[in-house]
Amino acid sequence: xxxxxxxxxxxxxxxxxxxxxxxxxxxxxxxxxxxxxxxxxxxxxxxxxxxxxxxxxxxxxxxxxxxxxxxxxxxxxxxxxxxxxxxxxxxxxxxxxxxxx
Length: 101
What we know:
With 101 residues, the chain is α+β, with helices and mostly antiparallel strands. 26% of the residues lie in helices and 41% in strands. Strand 2 and strand 3 form a beta hairpin. The chain is globular and about 35 Å long.
């Protein structure tokens, strides 16, 4: 067991299901990602879910996955969080974390 490389960059797409829209979920996601140095984007989908893409240090992205999967914004009811297209990165594709419309 080695020491984790805090510089290991990862990318993934996520979709959060449940009662998650209309509760500042996208704003809270953006604020938490920005504070953690994660780049990418988030938006409300027409299907009533929250979708997005995160890129950053694996340790920070893992913390956000936990938040997206089980905690979320106050008042939300998360059913599940699906992750897709997970891979390692050499460099970030985004310069910041944005809310898309």
